[in-house]
Amino acid sequence: MTTEHRSLRSELETLTTEAFRPELAEIDTLPTLDIARLMNGEDAAVAGAVALRLPQISAAIDGIAARMAQGGRLVYAGAGTAGRLGILDASECPPTFNTRPGQVVGVIAGGPSAMVTSVEGAEDSAELARTDLDTLGIGPADSVVGVSASGRTPYAVGAVEHARALGALTVGLSCNAGSALAAAAEHGIEVVVGPELLTGSTRLKAGTAQKLVLNMLSTITMIRLGKTYGNLMVDVRASNEKLRARSRRIVALATGAPDDEIEAALTATDGEVKPAVLVILAGVDGPTAARLLEESGGHLRAALTATGG
Predict the structure, then answer these.
(1) Looking at the predicted structure, is the pLDDT value of residue 237 above 80?
(2) Pair 17, 202: CB distance under 8 Å
(3) CA end-to-end span of the chain, whole Å?
């Protein structure tokens, strides 16, 4: 074993996410239902661990939203499971919130092929992270979230360090206390979920915790940016029949209008939900609704207030 390998092994042995649980050493001999109960019990503790970090999560969201309101981007950077979760969250923002192309981005160590297969050595390269961010042209308007269960992954740490040097807002999301990733970021979020059911398999509790936090970062940021009206997705992009039906239902829930009025409003706004709601509630035409929304920065509630609605 090389000195480098010994050093890495020693480092892993200090991480909570890598800890061995002797009480589960014979889990493979248990009935399936018992294993399922064990896993379910483990997962039930994740939300509580996230709850302990809500102040840090909220502070990060406010920082991200402020920059995005000025035209900045939200970028997730990670390797392996963490990188895939970032790309998943980013890919769901356009259909859910009608974000612009490239407004929310996920980058993963090793590039797109790493979504479905392991790319040897990619996660160990901070230089690769710097190159990926430079390709995006990261600057002071942007926010970069490094994601790593261990909190030591060179790709994630390198991304945050480089982004911070470029003036971007930085967030470090990990599942170990005292992590290098959190220390490198302006906003450190350490959700300590404890040792995994399968030793070191951080796609389990750690992955669930990361998904919950990423859900918050993107969803609440979009709420702050006016992408919702109450708890309705008024910026949803109707790109298929299911979403077109959802659009009609959202307008109905927001306005209480009859179907024929809803259809007329959606026709007047080229199928866009937010201006259609404004057409109905404020009694304006499509172009006026579009102008009012532009003047209010896309916030439907503010546009309604401006019309006295």
Answers:
(1) no
(2) yes
(3) 72
Quote the CA–CA distance of 284 and 60 in Å, as a whole number. Answer: 37
What is residue 6's three-state secondary structure?
helix
3-state secondary structure of 74: strand
Residue among 92, 186, 261, 263 flagged as catalytic: 92
What is the arithmetic mean of pLDDT over 101-108? 96
- Please, which residues bridge with residue 106 across strands? 76
Taking residues 102-122, what's their average pLDDT? 86
Give yes or no for a contact between 68 and 222, defined as CB atoms under 8 angstroms apart: no
Residues 61-87: tens digit of each pLDDT? 999 999 999 999 999 999 999 999 999
Confidence of residue 243 (pLDDT cuts 50, 70, 90): confident
Active site residue 261: no
Measured distance CA(68)–CA(95) in Å, rounded: 18
If you compute the radius of gyration of the chain from its CA atoms, what whole number of angstroms results? 22
Read off the pLDDT of residues 158-187 as tens digits, 9 standing for 90 and up. Answer: 999 999 999 999 999 999 999 999 999 999
Q: Is 92 a catalytic residue?
A: yes
Q: At what angle do helices 286-295 and 273-282 cross, to 10 degrees?
A: 110
Residue pair 141/166 in contact by the 8 Å Cβ criterion: no
Q: Which of 18, 42, 123, 190 is catalytic?
A: 123
**d(C-alpha 289, C-alpha 274), whole Å:** 9
